[in-house]
């Protein structure tokens, strides 16, 4: 059955876009802070490929947010009071803006997933079968999503039915890939990763660390968007508005995980320091009775000599 495009009301369309933009700008600030932290901590020590990867991620996030701000200006300022604002785009210019924004979102998400795939490959001790399967699923989802974004950029509302079909084909792959990536990463983190948590960390701290190291927030947003598209098609403006936050959540999770290496090293140093202190204490405790025994043994000959005299 052909997918039907449901048009929201003006409050639904513009309200969702405004809220999504506010969250996008907030997350942009958080990602920028993480990028600055990375530059200060690892900018001169990490390999050139990783530094180029971070630079590319930051460029994608900023480009996406700038294109979205241009689109919001067009919607809220240029076309203020226009009753046709419920449509995603009514001109070639808007088609290109929306299409470019969708392409940047899709590319940023895939770019972030590449890091987690590589990280899973290392965590799983180079398990080719797991990483290759997840890579195929996520690449297929990226191809379909990219085709959907390109279709809208070139055809606009005229090609909305084709775009909707491509989106509906991509979302099952996205959900399967994201959920599998998060849960499998969590499994290997808990099983093999040393110093993943501080020895004194409470349950809440451990949960926060695990959530961002597995990109769980981005996975949750993807699932919510999928539910809105399939179950509540009348709210079709909400998923497209909140997909911008999905890209920033992937970027923030990647940068938080990269910067969290400092905390792991500190925890490892603490662990080694505590172990060394414990060993030193045990050695001193064992030496004390021995030294006391030697002192007693040395005092006895002196005492005997005095008795002989």
UniProtKB/TrEMBL annotation:
Query: Keywords in UniProt for this one?
Result: Membrane, Transmembrane, Transmembrane helix
Asked whether the keyword Amino-acid biosynthesis is assigned, the reply is no
Bias-annotated ranges (Basic and acidic residues): 295-309
Query: Which parts pass through the membrane?
Result: 18-40, 52-73, 97-116, 128-149, 169-190, 210-232, 238-258
UniProt-annotated stretches for the region Disordered: 287-309
- This one is known as Uncharacterized protein
- Organism whose genome encodes this protein: Mycena indigotica
